[in-house]
Each structure stands twice: as structure tokens, then as C-alpha cells.
Amino acid sequence: LDKAYALVGDKIDYISKLKEIGNLRYSLDSLELEPFFEVHDARYQMYFQTYSKEEYKEKQELLKKQEIEAMALEAKIIDKINCGEQQPEVDHLYKAEKSNSGYEDGKFWRNTRSYISYQMLNKNSKGQLLQISILDEFNSDNITILINEKPAVITLSDKKTISIKIDNKEVLNIKILAKDGKISPKFSQLRIVTE
């Protein structure tokens, strides 16, 4: 959505900029609008977000803040897995039973009623924490996490991030077990971070 075309200003202003160019086609600033039934093998947008100038400025500031936070986090990451995405999971020796994946709020996720396992590398033992991002509520009664076959001590950094100290281990074999067939949270990312 941050790259999608948006209409900024008063509604009357952007409607007045709409110019008919024939054959059900219109131009709007740098855009050429065409009928949906004619769009093939191309990205398209059917709806536009609309903002007042003040709302758009706030939106841009929020996006900039989110980008700065994401870059700061990325600088701390030693290894990461985006759960539910094929290549990152294959690269980290993904195995599972009774597992589902999906896409929600701009993020891929994976959950289980049995287990999920991955292998991560902590290059030069620089990472201090394993952080696991979740999309829904965390209930410690529903899962157990094993690191190299030993139960992990789980803490919550915030409502959506599980943190586990990893004590300079270079290889982490991570296994997330659902207890008694209960559904686990939706895991969106596992990452080894320096702090």
C-alpha cells in the first residue's frame, strides 16, 4: 500500500483533474486509467486511497518512522526466517506436521497443531536472542519451544514478540510444539539478533 497511487487533496480537486481520452480510458495526473477487463499480465489498482493534505503528510511521516525502525532492526539481525514463505523455510530445513500458512496484515505466517521445526545459524555466535514475531495472542499454555532439544525459557518483549536467550550457540535447532493439539499462534518471523 505504501507504493500504491493515492489521491491527495480535496475530492473536488482530483475529480476535476480526471480527463477523458476515449475508449473508456481516462488520465489522472501521470496515470492512465483503463477498463479492468482490458488489463492482462500487469499490476493494477482498482481503488485509490484518499487523503487530505494533512492526512497524507501524517501517513508519509508514519511510513518514514516504520522504515527507520525496520532498518535499525535489520542491522541487528544475524539470521531470519519469514514463516510461511517457501524459500526462507526451505533454506532453514523446515519440517512440520498439522501446520497451516497464510497471509494477513501484510505478513506471511505459519501455525501448527503438532510441531514446526527450523534450523538457524548464529554466525560467529554474535546473536544473543531468538525473537519470534506473532500475529495473534500468545498463550504459553498452548506451546513449548525447544532449542537444541532443550526447553527454552520464554519471555515476551511485547504482546507480539517472544524472546529467548540463546547463550552463544552457533546452530539452533528450533522446534515449536503445540500442546494437546491446541492451535499455536501465527508465527510471522523468527530472527536471531545481536541484542
Structure description:
- It is elongated, with a radius of gyration of 22 Å.
- The longest helix has 24 residues, at 53-76.
- It contains 3 helices and 15 strands.
- It has helices spanning 11-16, 53-76, 86-91; strands at 6-8, 19-22, 25-28, 31-33, 49-51, 77-82, 95-104, 107-121, 129-134, 143-147, 150-151, 155-158, 161-165, 171-178, 187-193.
- The chain has 2 domains: 6-73, no CATH class; 75-193, Sandwich (Jelly Rolls).
- The strands form 4 sheets. The protein has a 5-stranded antiparallel sheet with strand order 6-15-9-13-12. A 5-stranded antiparallel sheet has the order 7-8-14-10-11, with no helix packed on it. A 3-stranded antiparallel sheet has the order 2-3-4, with no helix packed on it.
- The protein starts with 5 loop residues before the first strand and ends with a strand.
